[in-house]
Write a structure and sequence with these properties.
Radius of gyration: 24 Å
CATH topology: Amidase signature (AS) enzymes
Shape: globular
Active site: 159, 234, 258
Family: Belongs to the amidase family.
CATH class: Alpha Beta
Strand content: 5-15%
CATH architecture: Alpha-Beta Complex
InterPro entries: Amidase_CS (IPR020556), Amidase_dom (IPR023631), AS_sf (IPR036928), FAAH2 (IPR052739)
Number of strands: 15
Number of helices: 19
Transmembrane segments: 37-63
Structural class: alpha/beta
Pfam family, one: Amidase
Strand order of the largest sheet: 1-3-2-8-10-9-14-15-13-11-12
Helix content: 40-55%
Length: 557
């Protein structure tokens, strides 16, 4: 070797490092062989069925005429919430005019989308009129209005499960049909106190248990970019309204990608916060377990990136001051890590070529800003599906009976399965499927579940050390864009890369990056270290400026 003494030592270390990587690859390959056989047979079956059924649904969609969404007529619909609030404070437009514009848009799109569970349009108009009278009176200066009620007069929408006083609170479950929310959920109340006006509650899957928004009470919600495709779940009603221009900001909840995946499917922004920042009081379902309450998060959903920070600041309340939300890290000081794959998911649902391309384009954008960018070296990422399923169904939710009893719902899996087969179900297939995973601990043996729980802790420590207070991870929100209605049993693992960050308790934001060749929204998620939610928002704004953000859905097909 031409190396000197010092160089020979460096070469030796490099050779040893390469050797250990080979051993690690061998260990990972051996693990794959040993992985839960039943799970991966199940995954293979899902892939085959999806391969067979998807073309049939595509042909059907091609030959059946789609009713297009009406074009957006009001100029105010395309304003951000922050801009609308400024216009209202400056009396450039009345609050009532803004609210009426969004109500008109809701009435235009809902016959196509079926995203509204119940509205309060008349009450919202009355509240808008009262706000206009207050502003006209001059009892507060413009500065005082901004300080005390930063979202004064801005209409917003609420996922039904988050609780809006006087509105439907069945959360898609027939056993709760007719129930109304007695009070505003804590998050909703904070927005109301900030001056925003709730105009409706949006549709959810039954008990928020599915990645497709469908239930036996209000039916199925359609995607504004293609009504034959899903809006996602469980915040699918919210996302569809935002994507169609019928809402500008909304409140959703995220237990396994339930904000971020619908946000991607509908081309908008959705943030899962660091756990413990936003109060969960008033949400249904809500398990009392502390571990569960670290996985479930309420968060903002917006059409424009600039609204994430002000909305989050309001929702965080007193905790906002400790997060330094107004302090931005210089862009060239950001450390940007990325992953463009989904590990080894069930059914081998790897990101589409167009999603991978968008991730690389985003990375190249940050390289052009002199950021340090590199692919993350995280072997545990390969097991993200198993880590998510084992941690949630095998550790966090320990007892199906206890969990359902806490919801005051009686459920017998064998009984409900038979009723479903006979065509007389009380619960949807999604809820039965969710309960089966919970009952059988995601079909993962106990020793393997324990291994994956340990692996989750290892991955969390690695990511926390890697990201610190100036690092972000760019990775897929979902491996594929919105799928055809009815395919959700075959597509459950699409959400596991989003689900993983609920398990790891890290903040994550979906960022839309335009439409694919089929006209469907695609994007990525931005992940930051614990308590570094502001980095997610900063990167979202940077990418919105670079790629354009929300793209209005077509008004003709």
């Amino acid at each position: 070797s031409p190396c000197g003494v010092a160089d020979r030592e460096a070469c030796r270390r490099r050779d040893f490092s390469a050797f250990t990587r080979v051993l690690d690859f061998g260990r990972r390959s051996h693990q794959l062989v040993k992985m839960e056989f039943a799970m991966h047979i199940y995954g293979f079956i899902l892939k085959v069925l999806s391969f067979m059924i998807t073309p049939i649904l595509a042909v059907r969609a091609f030959f059946v005429h789609q009713k297009p969404l009406p074009p957006i007529k009001s100029e105010y619909i395309k304003c951000s919430a922050s801009e609308l609030a400024r216009k209202i404070r400056k009396q450039e437009v009345t609050c009532e005019r803004i609210v009426r514009a969004f109500i008109v848009r809701c009435r235009e799109v809902n016959p196509v989308l079926n995203a509204i569970s119940e509205n309060r349009f008349c009450n919202a108009i009355d509240e808008a009129h009262t706000i206009d009278q207050m502003i006209d009176s001059g009892v507060k200066t413009e500065e005082e209005l901004e300080r005390d009620t930063p979202l004064l007069g801005v209409p917003f929408t609420v996922k039904e499960s988050c609780g809006l006083k006087g509105m439907r609170f069945s959360v898609g479950c027939t056993l709760r049909d007719g129930m109304k929310a007695m009070e505003n959920g804590a998050a909703v109340e904070k927005l109301v106190k900030a001056g925003a006006i709730p105009i409706l509650v949006s549709n959810t899957p039954e008990l928020c248990c599915s990645i497709e928004t469908y239930n036996f009470i209000t039916g199925r919600t359609n995607n504004p970019y293609n009504r034959f495709r899903t809006s996602g779940g469980s915040s699918g009603g919210e996302a569809a309204l935002l994507g169609s221009g019928a809402s500008v900001i909304g409140i959703g909840s995220d237990m396994g990608g339930s904000i971020r995946v619908p946000a991607m499917f509908n081309g908008v922004y959705g943030h899962k916060p660091t756990p413990g920042i936003i109060d969960l009081t008033g949400h249904f379902p809500l398990d009392p377990s502390p571990d569960f309450q670290k996985v479930l998060c309420i968060g903002p959903m917006t059409r424009y990136a600039e609204d994430l920070t002000p909305m989050f600041k309001i929702l965080a309340g007193d905790k906002a001051s400790s997060l330094n939300l107004d302090h931005k890290v210089p862009v060239n000081n950001l450390n940007v890590f990325y992953l463009d794959n989904c590990g080894y998911p069930l059914g081998n649902n790897q990101p589409t070529r167009e999603i991978k391309k968008k991730i690389h384009q985003a990375v190249n954008h940050f390289k052009s800003k002199s950021c340090k960018c590199e692919k993350a070296d995280l072997p545990e990422w390969d097991d993200s599906t198993e880590i998510s399923l084992a941690s949630f169904f095998g550790s966090i939710l320990k007892s199906v009976n206890k969990t359902l009893n806490n919801m005051s719902i009686k459920f017998s899996l064998p009984h409900e399965a038979v009723k479903f087969i006979l065509g007389a179900p009380t619960f949807t297939l999604a809820t039965i499927h969710f309960t089966a995973l919970l009952t059988f601990k995601a079909f993962i043996p106990k020793k393997r579940r324990e291994m994956y729980v340990v692996e989750a802790e290892t991955l969390k420590k690695k990511l926390t050390n890697l990201l610190k207070d100036n690092g972000v991870l760019l990775c897929p929100t979902s491996a594929q864009p919105a799928f055809y209605h009815g395919l959700f049993p075959l597509k459950q693992t699409l959400t596991c890369q989003a689900f993983l960050f609920n398990i790891l308790h890290l903040p994550a934001t979906n960022v839309p990056l335009g439409l694919n060749s089929q006209g469907l929204p695609i994007g990525l998620q931005v992940v930051a270290g614990p308590g570094q939610d502001k980095l997610c928002f900063q990167v979202a704004e940077e990418l919105e400026a670079a790629f354009g953000g929300w793209v209005p859905p077509p008004s003709s097909y």
